[in-house]
Amino acid sequence: MTAPVRAWVQKFDALTVRRLERAIERAARDEQTTLPVYINSPGGCVNTCMAMVDLFDSSPVPIATIALGIADSCGAVLLACGAKGSRYIGPNTEVMVHEMSADTGHRTMANVEHDAAFLASLNRQWLGLLDKSTGRRGGYWLRHVRSSAHSDHYFTPAAAVKAGLADHIGVPRFKTEASFG
């Protein structure tokens, strides 16, 4: 019997998206009951995170997310987007949620205004993923972040579970077969 397929997310880049896609394909081919995705990341590119969420949503294998160490920004969103009941957070793990950020660089005022409108829309979509994944009413996370001057919001493992970002505190163990428990 082959070892269960597992995936790791530390960076939010194209290579990690491709590795995640291959892990999903292997887990489906091996008829694995769940694919564990370990997250230890300070965050990264919002668009790459959304690509990973799209892979989660289209996966024929349920995705269990396990945050270890740090799950900030994109890491927090990816944690929350795991299969309901299969979202874990290590007892010593930090989770942080905030609005997305972008560097507009030195550009014309018209470009900055256009970018601002696009980024506002993307930010609503970004935080809307948390609304959907945590079972909150639309706009909850946007209002939550904005309620304290757009600052970073840190969660202990217990607070992350209470907020709906995770379901369980602890790191699940693998059984000898290709299932996840």
Written description of the protein model:
This protein is of the alpha/beta class and 181 residues long. It contains six helices and seven strands. Helix 2 packs parallel to helix 3. Residues 176-181 have low confidence and may be disordered.
Mean pLDDT: 89
Count of runs of 4 or more consecutive helical residues? 6
Number of strands: 7
H/E element string? EHEHEHEEHHEHE
In whole angstroms, the N-to-C terminal distance is 17 Å
Shape: globular
Throw out a few tags for this protein:
181 residues, alpha/beta, seven-stranded mixed sheet
Chart the SSEs and their pairings.
Elements lengths: L6 E3 L4 H16 L5 E7 L4 H13 L4 E10 L1 H7 L6 E3 L4 E4 L11 H26 L5 H7 L6 E3 L1 H7 L4 E2 L12
Parallel strand pairs: 1-2, 2-3, 3-4, 3-5, 4-7
Antiparallel strand pairs: 5-6
Can you give me a brief rundown of this structure?
The chain has 6 helices and 7 strands. By secondary structure, the chain is an alpha/beta fold. Strands 1, 2, 3, 4, 5, 6 and 7 form a 7-stranded mixed sheet that branches.
